[in-house]
């Protein structure tokens, strides 16, 4: 391998390492925000939290729309953004729903956040036909969850002392399951297409 090839290889490795470590850095930011809850004023804590929780959105859209494929750094960026977005959605659910009365509709901010997440997943899948099932299924789950918490008849009290409404617990688990289901269906479709090509 000559000097030019070595330089090109090193230029490819460095971004891949950086994108691979990006989710770790984001996770530490999130943990820092959670641990500093008692040390920050309300507006500062809320603003910082929103900034951290929203960060996976431009990250995922950049990986989907702008980064070259097929490259390792692109897949690492996309996977890290997805993992961060899903954890962000979980934290958002806990943040909004644990502080709400389980017998009433959830705060409107929760619905806005989850509808926005569904739109982001759809936008990220648009340029990637090979991701439309994997992103579309959880996008549908986000939209259903966002609407369900605004239906009073579905929020009929907590279960076994939990602060979450029964419907919230069920739908949150369904959403997590849909994320896995979307990935499995996408892989199954890819394998089926590959088998037909042979």
UniProtKB/TrEMBL annotation:
Protein name as catalogued: Uncharacterized protein
Keywords: Membrane, Transmembrane, Transmembrane helix
Superkingdom to which the source organism belongs: Bacteria
Record lineage: Bacteria, Bacillati, Actinomycetota, Actinomycetes, Glycomycetales
Organism of this sequence: Glycomyces albidus
Keyword Transmembrane among UniProt keywords: yes
Residue stretches spanning the membrane: 12-36, 42-63, 75-96, 108-126, 133-151, 171-192
């Amino acid at each position: 391998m000559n000097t030019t090839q070595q330089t090109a290889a090193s230029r490819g490795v460095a971004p891949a390492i950086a994108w691979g470590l990006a989710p770790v850095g984001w996770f530490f930011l999130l943990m820092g925000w959670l641990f500093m809850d008692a040390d920050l004023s309300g507006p500062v804590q809320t603003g910082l939290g929103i900034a951290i929780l929203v960060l996976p959105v431009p990250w995922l859209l950049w990986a989907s729309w702008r980064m070259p494929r097929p490259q390792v750094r692109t897949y690492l960026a996309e996977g890290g953004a997805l993992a961060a977005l899903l954890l962000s959605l979980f934290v958002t659910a806990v943040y909004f729903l644990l502080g709400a009365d389980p017998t009433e509709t959830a705060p409107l901010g929760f619905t806005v956040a989850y509808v926005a997440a569904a739109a982001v997943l759809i936008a990220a899948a648009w340029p990637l036909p090979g991701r439309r099932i994997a992103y579309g299924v959880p996008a549908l789950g986000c939209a259903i969850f966002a609407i369900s918490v605004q239906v009073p008849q579905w929020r009929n009290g907590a279960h076994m002392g939990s602060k979450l409404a029964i419907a919230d617990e069920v739908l949150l688990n369904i959403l997590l399951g849909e994320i896995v289901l979307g990935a499995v269906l996408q892989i199954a479709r890819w394998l089926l297409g590959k088998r037909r090509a042979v």
